[in-house]
Structures are given as structure tokens and as C-alpha cells.
Queue: 2 jobs
Job 1
Amino acid sequence: MKRLFWLVLLPVLAGCPEQQEPAGFAGLAGVADPEAEVPFLQPGPGDRLSFPADFGPHPQHRIEWWYLTANLETAEGDPLGLQWTQFRQAIKPRLADAVPPDSGGWPLEAAWMAHAAVSFNGQHYFAEKLARGDVGHAGANAEPPAVWLDDWQLSELSGNGTWRLQVSADNWSYDLSLQINGEPVAHGDQGFSAKSASGEGSMYFSLVDIQIEGTVTLGDRTLAVSGKGWFDREWSSQFLKTGQQGWDWFALHLESGDKLMAFQLREEGGAFRSGTWIPARGEPVALTPGQLRMTPISGPDSYPRQWQLEVPDYGVSLKVSAPAGDYRNTGLYPYWESPVAVSGSHSGVGYMELTGYGN
Amino acid sequence: MTLLAALFSHYRRHPLQLLALATMIVLATMLWTGVHHLTSQARASLDQSESAVAERQQVTRADGEPVSVRDFVALRRAGLCVMPWLEVASPGAGRIVGVDPLAAACFDRSAKDNEPWRGELDGAPFVDISEAAGLAIGQKGQKDSQGVLSLLLSGPDSGSALPSGYRIAPFTVGPDTGELGESFLLNLDALGMLVLLISALLLRSVYLLGLAQRRDSFALLHRFGVPGRQINRLLLLEIMVLALVCIVPGVWLGRWLATGLGSGFGRALEGLFDTPLYAGQDGGWLVPVATMLAVVLVACLADVLRPLARRLSVAGRGQSLLPALVLLAGIALSVWASALAWLFVAVAMVFVAAGILAPFLIARLADWRAGGEEDPLSRWRHRELSVLARRLALPLVALQFAMAMVLAVQALVTTFESTFDQWLVQRLEADYYIEVPEGADASLAVDWLSGQQELAAGLWHRVIRGQATLMNSVGESGPVVDVFALGPIGPLVTGWQLFESVGAPWQSLAEGQGLMVNEQLARRQGVTVGDTLSLKLGHKAIDFPVLAVYPDYGRPAGEILIPASALPTDFETGFQSLSISPGTLSMETVTSGLKQIWDVEQLTVRDNRAIESLASAIFDQTFLLTRAMTVLTLILAAIALLLMGWVFFSTRAWYFRLLVVWGLPRRQAATQLTRLSLSLTSAIALLALPLGVWLTWILVHRINPLAFGWSLPMAVYPRFWLELGVLSVLVGLSIAVLMRRQLNSPASAPESASALSGGER
Amino acid sequence: MVDLLLAVRGLNKQFRSGTQSVSVLSDLSLQLGRGESLALTGRSGSGKSTLLNILCGLEKPDAGRIQVLEEVFDSRKPAGSRQAEARWAALRRRQIGVVFQEANLMPALSLLDNVRLRARLAGQADDKCEDWMERLGIGELADRYPDQVSGGQRQRAALAMVFAMKPALILADEPTGSLDRHTAEAVTRQLFDLQARHGCGLILATHDAELATRCNHHLDLGHQPET
């Protein structure tokens, strides 16, 4: 549940006219005639996930991302947070099976943005990359899974369910192997995750059990790291409704083996909340807005670093705290992305993302 | 009442004087800050356009094939920060450059201002690369118009991880205008100094006026036992406080003005390399404030330079000999000086002398005419003019300097513009310019072109570039010069302007009877037509007679022009190209023919018209800023003269009113005053003329050759003279209007006939 | 009075001072014949200079009728003010000589040139100018400039200028006010002497009561202006 703000980036480029939202129910329009204007698809209740195709890009959706957060430890046991995200923003929708435009024409039907960050010892390292789609230096693939932008890439290691993630910024880099365990967890209604009371939403699933090992290089220091990761896939054509100011998102690994994803979209006089309770054993449960309580402990004017998260139905009452430091990702569109420590009814670690708090 | 209050009480009684002084400081600060701002902007915009058109690096394929999207992807995936640059010659829009702003994001962010493709791409020449590619594809019929793709490299260090199969090459998109620009900036700096001098003169004039009027109170204080030194210290304090109070708003206004002007110009030249011209440059406060404070202090407390100052303020009778000698010496020095420093000394000498002499000359001339005048009223007017000239000496001189400066700058700028345009037209006579690819045999092209019936003879030539070593008389190696070899010698060059030449120089050149040298080489080596140059072109030295000297603005090095046929076979060719005006033949035929004989897929073809307009546009911008700066100076000088005239006439209003008391109808009295002020301003405009022409000559003919080794043709522009004449009439009329107001309001009788009360003669 | 030179009736003049208006001259009437002299006395601010300015057209009265020679200026008949101004200018040029306490001379002209200028403006030949200077005892100072001579000499030159124009009426505003007693006496004597000899009218504003007694008439403008 992230990165809605990227919608404003593309009009900057080459004066593309803002695409109109497709009318009518999602999935019904514009498939028959390839000559007709292809509309953007808007996910809705009843849409289903499809694997492995949904690891790849969705060219008829306006926006999507591949998102990894990781709570790692160095050999000395110091915590290290890590993020990698790649966004795709469509400027012009295209049918999933359409032939992509010729790269020689430098098409501008989609743009890509990648973010990478490392949080260690109170320091936050962040880098950003941009590219246009369909040229070749940025893209994504479902089978075998691959996501890349320049020399940053997520790729599968020899088809054994292990992925490799390589990122290299100016003065720091990381190279990780990701052991994917378990099945994808579908959020919301079998993958359709509502983002407002009136029914808009996105398709959203996560890989929540990822064992990570590798190295992180900061300056001339190379650290061996290991720990767990959380991988999100999400796509839609619209997220923030008018009046929604921003969102707060949490993905928590609890020591009990349970996991919790929770988010809220803040709007005038309240918030739309949703989440998924993923018990150590048993099926994940979608949490309705009434089942979740999310309370910032510090004031609403700057990024709240501490939160109270409660799911009374499951006996969950957590205090979630970011470590000391400034964890803003200061790219084209700044937001907060930090590892968190969890205490209260359960202890654990996780990641927190906050947007729409000004600076 | 404290001493300070006593000292200040003068301004309480004469608030207008305080206002005038403060206004002067504010205006002078505004002017200089504005000029300083504009100068640095001009410098920045020049630097920027240079960095935009030159000094970049690109990645090319080691196998010589043109780069493609695939190469771009391969390099980006390898972690290299390269940006695609797709140049399309569009028949309608001229030269279009397609860039990818997303790919440019990895270019060093700190250098943002130098990268016009950042931010919004709102028109030619920079567009999104997909648009440029669309244009190129749209023109598939004429293959040559298809875009030329280059891959620009972000920084010099990015090349370390260059994958094999690629190499780094320099990337330029326009002619190197660097030195011409440098020369212009040197002149700008010199003019900035003049502006500072003018500001100082204006400040001093207002200050001296105030001081003169306070002399009585100083004397009183002195009689009361206050030591002179203490009075001086307090005066220093007073002027410091006033200066600080006035400089800050002045600096603010100056920057506001410069930004306003600048953004106007920016808008006017939208679309070229100017998008960030006025962005981000906020400049410090320290430099303008410190400079102006120093100027105010020097101008107001320059009494250590008392002899000079006294001469400037009241040009005494019979004291003109020394300044006249200084003037002559300065002019002589300006003619004979052989070093830049001495030239600047000469400029200083001539200006100081002219400043002292001009009011003196006007006064003497007026006195002389008064002496010969029978009509007492005319005699009064001439005598009054004499008083005015002496009393308003400082602001008059400032106006004279400002006018001279405007004259010189206008002439300089116009000269630069026309010379530069003319030279560009000469150099880019051919419509197209085709690079001979590395490894291709240019002589094949020559044979092929010679065989084209439709290509009228002489509308193309082959250019071979390289270097040669100049040999001295005893056979030792001298400096290295650029070689510019042409063949055949045809109408593309025979129209070139030559400084000096033998008879029928081009024919002689075509027949291999010698070579031509550029002005830089001629000046540096003291070569003239008829001399013989010994050159080592290959392994052997050959003697060539010099047939002509040609202008070659902006090139730092010496250059020789020889027919290609005169090159020895072992000459090491650096670079080859063809210049072609295809005439009735289509360019497509030419390029496809050349591609075929050279067996290459792509050719680098440049549209010379596009290069020409690009280069001219870059200079236009600088010229506009310069003009703005000088016009500002002129406006300030005019305002200063108005202000001073007004203050002076206030003190003398009683006497002008006597004319009315004596029965002269007000209208006639006003006419007398108008004639008076018009005589004054026209006289100073007339005196500014020779100074301005001389300054133009110095800038164009002396400073530039000494600094850069090439000269500009000197031209005078009588239209500017006329404009200045009109301006001087306007200033004169404005003064007259102010004076009429004084006539109409009852003046109080002066308490005494002393000079302090306007009773000077 | 046989030969009337100046007749003033019902003259009023007020000055505004802030919101108050100060009456300087109120319902003043006077007459002066050729060859007659009138002394104006009164404290500073009592309106002596204002009256003189009005009598030569440099200031306008609020009300009143003024006749100088044949020219009549009546505030009730507001003929074009420009025309009135032109008639006043013509009068000042040829008929009315004005002498101030100081600064009667153009500083940039020699004494002789000043006298010539004044004579020429009045339409008089300037060959008599040097005579006038001789008669006033400043003949040898002809080529000096105003700032090169004493105050008394400057006032003599001012008298020379006035007489050179052969005026019908002389308006003198404290002409000796800035001179020492001895010089003042000499200058005054010359003034009266010449006035009598040429039969012109003289209005003399002065502080000096003794001087006032020498005139045919005496008008005391009083102490303080009325509020």
C-alpha cells in the first residue's frame, strides 16, 4: 500500500495529457477492439490474483510496485533496516498481451523509478533512479521473476526459489540472496484490497516469509547481514481519493511467528483502516476497519515515530517505535520509511511507512 | 545639544540635502549592484552556453558503428550514467535535440543549472527524445534527416567502468565561442569599473555640496573649541551610518532591477540555452555592500586626494595645463602602449584629464562667448552657463563618462555583433558540413563529388585539419600552428574578408603559390604579406610565401590556410570534413552517395544554418545584458545631474527670479533658463562624443588585440550619437522644468552674496 | 493731487498658516503722486514686504484695486490673470524699480554689466550706465563682480541699476538694512537725492523711524497682523 504520490511525476515529462479514468466497472471495457482507445483498468471486488503472471508488470494499470523491506542483523547483532522498491507509472495504458512499442522510438508509455535505502546505526542511506519504460534498461518479468533498472536488479537464482537483489548507489551498495518460503498472502478480498469506504482499491499480495543473507557495503565497510524480509506486490489505477491526505503502513514480524500488515488512509475527520492478520499457523485473516486501532503517539504535524497498534480480536496491543534518526527518503517525493521495534503484547520487528506529513 | 546633534542639525534644517545624498547612495548602490549582478549573469550565461555546447563527453562504439538504443541499454545496465542525445534536423523547426530527462536524473545534481534538459522541456531545441525520434521517423523518406544519436556521459570519472567495445570521445554541438566570450567579459569588467567610478563621482558631488553648505556651522563649532579632528571623526561616523542605512536597500533594489531585466531577457530568448539563466543566482550581500561602502567612504572622504578633488570640483582658471598634458600623455600612451596594464593606465589618465578639462572647457568657452556678446541678457546667460559648468562639474563629468561609456558599449556591441555574424556567415558559407568518418578515404568522396554533374563546380570543398610546426630562420622548431587545408579553392572561401593580401590572393592560393595566415599568427609572429614562412608539415620543412592575412575571431591559436594539394603525403591528418552547398542536387543524393562509397551506415551531417543561429542567439543574450547595464548607468547619471541641478538651482533661485522682478515675463525668463540648461547638457554630450569614440577605439583596437591577439573592425554609429543628443536634450529640458518651478515659487532672499548662498560667479 | 502715480483702494491680503488665516493687510488705501515719497514702517511680519510685492505685481492681493500710472488692476474684475501678469511685467520692466535689502545683482555679471542689463531691459540706451555708476561713486568698480565689492557698493550699484532704467516708481525694501550706519546714510542720501531730481515716486519700507520722517508720507502698518 504505497507510493500513490508518483501520479504527479509524469505530467512533467513532455506534456502528456492526463489520461482519463475509465468509466464503468473494471475489466469490462476496451478489450475487444485493439484499435480503440485502451482504457486503464481499475481493480474491484471479485478480481483475482494469478500466479506467476502477477509477479510481472500490468501495463493496463496506471501504477504498481515491487517492494522489499528487510529487518536484518549484522554479524555483531546490530539491527540493519533495508528497503528496495521499484515503481512503474503508466502514462499510456496498454493491453497486457499487446506488442510493446519499438525501443528505437524512445517510447514514453511508462516510467520507472527505483528506491533503495539502508538504515543502520541511526544513519539513513537513500538513492533513487529513474528510467523510461520499453527502452530496455528498466523493466520487470513474471517468469522467471526479474525486476531491474540500470544495474539495480532483482533476479531469480537458477530457478530454485531463491532470488538475488543487487543495488549499487554512489557510496554504498548491497547484494542479497532471498530465500522465499511459503505461499503469497492475498490481502483484502482474495487480493483486492479496498482503499476507501466507497470501494476503490488495489490488487495486493505479499511474500511474508523471506530468509535473507548477504552483504551491505557502506563506504569502505562491508557488513555480512542476515534476517527476514517482506515483499509486496501491488497495482492499481487509482489510490488516493480526493480528501485523503496520506497513509501509514506497517508490516510487522512478531516473535510468536505471527505477522501483521496494517494501514490507514488519513482523511478529513478520520481514516480508512485495513490490514491482514497472518497467524503463525492457519489462514491469513483480512481485518475490517472496525477491528483495527492505530494511534500515533506523537503529534500529527511531523512524522509520528511511535504508534499504538491494536487488534483486540486477536489479543494484539503493540507499541511500534522507530529508532532514533531521520528516515525520510528524500527523493522526488519525500516520505518516511524506517525499520521499527515492536513491544507490548508481542515483541518483534518490522517496517513503517508514513506519507503525507508535509516534510 | 550634543556635538553630534549640532552636526546633524544641518540636515534637520535642510532635509532635502540629506534626501539627495541618501538617494544618491541608494541609486549608486542600486546601479552598481545591478551591473554587478548582470555582469555575473552574463558571465554565467556565457559559461553555461559554452558548457552546454562544448566540453562534454560521449561514449562511442569502439568499432566505429553509430550507437543505438541497444548500446544505451547495455551501458546503463552496466551501471554507467549515460544520457541519450538525439539530434534531428527538422526542415520546419531547424535543429531539434531530443533528450531523456529520466535518464538525465543520474547526472550530477549539483550541476543542475548547467543542464538545460533538466526540468521542463518546453520547446526547441530541447524536446523529449520520443518526440525527436518521432520527427526522425516521420522523415524516413529523407534518410539524412534521421536523427543522430549520441550518448552523453555524466562525469569524467564515469568512464572508469566502461565496458569493453566502447570508448570515450569529446562531444560538441557548436562552434567554440570561448575566447570571443572571454574578450567580451574583459570589456564588461572594464565597464563595471567605469560604472563604479561614475557612482563615486556622483556621490562625491552631492557630498561636497552638503559640506560646502555646512562650512559655516563647522567654523562655528571650531570657534566653540571643538577640535577639527573630532569634527572629521564625527563626519566619518555620520557618513558611515548613512551609507550603511542606504546601501542595504540599494543592493536590494539593484538585484530586484537586475532580476527584472534579466528575466525579461530570459523570456525573450526562451527556447535557447537560457532556461535557468536567472534561476538560483542570488549572489552574496558581502561583495556589493563592502564595495559600495568603500566607494562611499572614498568618494566622501577623499580629501587625502585633495589636490585632485579640488581640481575636479572647481576647475580653476589657468590650471588647465597639467590636465591637458595628462590628456595628451594618456592618448599617446594609448597609442604606443604594448602591455594591457599600460593601456588601462592610459584609459585612467585620459578619463581623469577629460573629467577635469570638460567642465573647465565649457566654462571657458562660455566666458569667452560672454565676452564677445553685446546683448547683456545673452552675456548673462553665458556667464551663468560658466558658473553652472563649474558648480556642477562632478555630476556633469559623471554624465559625460556615462555617455562616453554608452557610446563605446553600443559601438562595441554592434561591432561584435556584426563582425561575429559576418564571420560566422563566412565560415559557414556552405549549407552542410559532413564529417569524414574515421578510416574513410576522403579522396574517394572528392572523386565522387567531382563527378557529379549537377553539383556546380566549387560549391563544395574538402577540409583537412592538422598541425604544423613553424621553423625559424636557422631551422629550429618554433610554435605549433593549426593547419586548415582546403581543396578545391572555390566560391565558398573566395568571399572571405582579408586584412591584407597580394593581388588575386585566392587564385595564387589555388595555384599553390603560397599560404594565408590568420590574424593571430600574423600578430604573434610579426608576419606580413610577402614574408616567407618555413613550415614543417610532414617530416620536411617547406617554405611558403604569405599571400594574405585573414580574420579569425575567437581562435586562440595561429592558423595557416593552404590548398589541400600543397600538403605532403606524409602529413598527419587530424580530422577531415566536407563542406557542401548541394544547390539543385538533393542532400539525400549526396549523403547516400557518400555512404555508398565509404561503405558506412551513418554520416554526421551538420546543418550550418542551425549552428549559425545557435551561436548568434548565445551572443545576443550577452549583448542585451551589456546594453541594459550601460543604459542603467546613463539613467543614473542623468538622474544625478537632475538632482544636482535641482539642488543648485534651489540655492540660485533668488537670482533667477530677479529676471522676473526686472520685468521679464515669466515665459521669457523660463526660456532663458531652458536655453541655459540645454546649452549645458548639449555641451557635455558634445564633449562625451570624442571620449566615447576614443574609448571604443581603445576597447576594439587596442585592448582586444593585446589581450587576445585579434582585433575587431572599428565602426562608428552616428545613430547612437543622435540618440545621445536626444537624451541630453531631454535631461536639459527636465532641468529646465525643475527650474521653472523655482521661478514660480517665491524664493527667500539670500542672507549674503557668498558662494554658499548661490551667489558664486 | 495733480499727477497721480499710484492709487490703492481696499487692499486685503491674508496668509494661511495651518488652519488659521492671518490678515496681513486689511482694507488698505493709499495714494502717491509723482515726486512724492512714502515710508512704510512696522514690525517684522507687519506686511511691508508683502505690500511692496503686491505693488509691483509679484504677489496678488485677495481684494483691492491698484492703479499704477494708467494701468488698473482690480480684483473684482478678474481679467485674464495672464494678461494682468503681462501688464505687471511691462510695468516692472520700464516703470517700477525694485531694490531689495541684499542680492540685487546677478552674481555672474560685473557691476557694469548688471546696470547695463537692467537698463537694456527697460529699453534705455546703456551708454548712460557708466555715468550712473560715476554719480553713485562706484565708477571705478565697473568691472568688479558683486562678490568683490562691499555691501554698500553693491547697494549703490543696485541704485545705479534702478536709476538707469528711468523708473516712474521706486520700491525699496530696507535698501540699507544690512549696511553700517555711515554707509547707510550715504546710500540713503543718494537715493533721496536722485529721486527728487528725477521726480519719480518712492516707497520705502524701513525700520528706521528717522528715515521715515524724511518721506513726504508715512504709513505705519502697525505691530502685529490680525488673526
Job 2
Amino acid sequence: MIVTQTRFRGALLDPTQAVPEGLLDGADQPAGRRFAVYRNNVVVSLTEALQVAFPLVYKLLGAQTFARLAGIYVRAHPPSSPLMMHYGAALPGFLETFEPLAHLGYLADCARLDLALRAAYHAADAPALAPERLQCAPEALVGMSLALHPATRIVRSRWPLYDIWRLNNEADAPKPRAVAQDVLITRPEFDPSPHLLPEGGALWLESLASGQTFGAAHDTALAAVPDFDLAQALTLALQTSALTDDKTKDD
Amino acid sequence: MLDNSPRFDHLPAAPGVGYKPQHFDELRAEPGPVAWLEIHAENYMGDGGRPIAQLRALSEQFAVSVHGVGLSIGGEGPLDPAHLARLKHLVGWLQPASFSEHLAWSTHGAEFLNDLLPLPYTDETLARVADHIDQVQSTLGCQMLLENPSSYLAFAESTWSETDFLSELVRRTGCGLLLDVNNVFVSATNLGLSARDYIDAFPLHAVGEIHVGGHDEETDEHGTPLLIDSHGAPVVDPVWSLLEITLAKSGPRPILVEWDTDVPDWPTLRSEADRAAKALSPVR
């Protein structure tokens, strides 16, 4: 009996399928439990990869619930790449429609925050924008294009996402407020960290990232959020190394 | 067939360890007998940040062996050209002393199954694996080492012994071999074979690196011992003995201590490297 990789794989991810005939133990008997070693390795190793990738989701769910979620997810969404640093990209969308955890409405955004932190960790290195670069005539500043640092990520949420992160990562963090919070993730050196964005800040940074000039991005943010505080958003962006210098054009 | 000069003698015939980021500072300050490090290629394929920065720093102090776990050399489908390109990029900038991969498969269609899955030893598998090794060696421009697997089961359809299969791959492709003596011990126990006979039949002339590591002990439904290659425990005495037997026949080789799960503190891992150094001393 020839055991093709298609047959092997089918039984590997579906424990209700019989162990393929043609697989033997040392006494030439059907492999039985020995096949379960591979079944177990796949699910356990992928569950561990998800646990590393989603520390906030793991903390919120606890080990048992996380393992049950992972057991279902890894069979529904096996990796499409050998780079475990990319595995789990579909988890936020999966959580959006996962009935057993529907009562935790904020969970999908927590997964997005975990993914953003991991992406920032592995992102390319680049110099942060030095504040002195913005010390120029107002007309020049308005026309300037600024790029986001390659490690910078923005997660918009209708949940108090930043407060939820703090509550699970800082001692004596306050209880989450009942507000929507957008989160900025930056990586000044090697360790990414989340920051609470002021209202309109996410749109302002996304406008800069899309190529709008400093002045146009300000106008975009103001149009959506009339009391958008540019000074506050800019200070946060500079202090957290959210911007980079390598694509800066001051014409 | 690759006729470049062998690359596998670039690793020192000394102890090495599998690199774990939590050991970064202590490893550099107090390496003990550790002369080289092995990294899992796939963990260093990001764009930047700490992993790449640490690897650059480590490569100034230690020889580095790049060990792939994701190429699926035994896969029925073609090698993933995107993954080959990532390997070429890593090997290009790092210029490691060695590149190795596994006699196993892990990719099916677009899926990556994140385990080293077993192969039947048939003429068909041999031809396919040889083609894939040729492709890797011509892409990377250097010889690669192929590692013997740890087996939990065998295929009824196999017509080659594992040692003959590996010897034939060496003959056809010019690749070298990575001999994992813990895998030999695990497979021999699980399949009721003799580890000594396996070493006797192994083409030791082609061995560019040796692995030792820990395993877990379980039993199957018949009460027969079933060893699991966990890399999560100290190397057991019978595996150290098998290493000594191997070295007595092969002469000195680079020896890697693998410890990938429940990773211990640096002094514990270093003491395993001390033991590898002790195993090397009689054959120097």
C-alpha cells in the first residue's frame, strides 16, 4: 500500500480519519499510536507558535481556552508559509465569527494588536526622524512629506484597546474606560510598545503614510475631528520614533 | 552533482549549541567550550529588529551554522521558490560556515505543516530528494548537509535501508550529511533496530556535523517503548556512548547540542557542551 503525502496529510489533520494502511511499527504491525505522534506534533507546535504570537489573547483566555481555540484554528487555517513569524494572520477575522467566544467582542482587536506588535518586532531597521528636521519655515513644513518608520503600526478599535493592553501588562493599571481607542505601535530600538493615540491621530498618521504632505494630513485630520490637536499628535509621534528620516523631502 | 569544494569543513570540530535568544549575553561573556552556533533559518527571515541584530553580533564571535526546518526537501511537490530565495538571501549576507536541512517533508500544496514528516525509502523518493538537493546546492552555491530523521514508524513500501538511501544521495548529489545520533537512538528504539549497526552502516566520511539532544520516553498501545525527539531534556548516557562510538570511527567532527523546548539556563546548556568537548578529546 502506497501512502501518498496527500493521504498522510489528510489523516494528520483529521483525527477521525483512520491511520493510513502501509505505516508500520517496529514489529511490522499497523502504526497505530505512532501516527498520533505526528498528529500531536503538528497541533502542539502550531499551538505554541500561536501562543508566542498572541500574548494578549492568551492572557485574556487562559491556557485551556486558548488551547481549545488554537486546536480549532490550526485545522481551519494551517500555515501557508514556513515562517512562523507570519502565522496567525487570519486569527482576528476568525475570531470575528467564532461563536463560542462571541461574548468577548474586543478579542479580535486584541489579536490585531498582538499581530501589530509582532510585525513591529520583525520590521526593517531605520533611523527615527530627528525633531530638528521640522525646525524650518512654516511654508516649508506644510509642504513636507514624512514617512512612517517601517516598524510603526496603527490599530484602530471601537473598544478601549489600549486600556485592555495596559490592564494585562502593567501592575496597578486602571480599569478600561468605556471609550473607543486607537493604538500606535512603535519600535524605537528593538522592543515594540503601544501608545494611546489622541482622537484623529490615527487618520493623521495614515494620511502621512499615504503620501499626503504635512499640511494636507493636518487638514484631513481636522476635517474628520474638528478639535484634532496637531501639537499633541506630533509630540507623541516624535517621542515614540513613529516617523523616519529616510524618505523625508523638504521641498 | 555539485563539484564546489566542500563547505562542511568550515565548522570547527568542536562543541556548538543551538542558539536561544535568552542566552545572548551570557553566551557571549562565558562561552566555555562553545566555538559555534546553530540557528534555525526561518527565525531569521524577518526584515530587521533584534533577531537580525543579534545574529550579526554573534557572527562576529562565533562560526554559524544555518539549519533549515521549512524547505520540505522530501515534499512531493516542487520546492517553494520564494523560500529558496529567502534562504539564498540569508546565506548571502551571513556567509555561514554550513547549511543543513532534513530528510523529511513538511509542505503539502500551499500548506506548511510545521513538523518533519517521514518518507518512504523508494527509488521514486530517492530521485525526487536528489533533484531537490541539486536545486538547493545550485541555488545556494554551496554543499548542503542532510540530516537523518527521528522515526516513529516505517513505510511498508520502503525498499532501501535509511543508511543506504543516505549513501546513495551523497553519491548522486555530492551533499554531505548531518548525523543526529539522538535521532539514531530514537529511531532504532522505535523501530526495533540496532543503533550500533546503523552507525556501522552510515557513510561517516560524508558527515560534516553531528547532533546530540534529549528525548522523551513514552510507550505505544502494545507497551513497546516509544521515544519522542523533543529536544527538551539533557542528552541521555546511551546517546553520549553512541556519540563516542561514532567519533572513534569518524574522527573529530563539529558536535551540536540541541535543546529547543523547556530551554535551560546558560550554565546547564554549557555543561552539555562541556560533555561534548570531553567526548571529542580522545579523538583529537
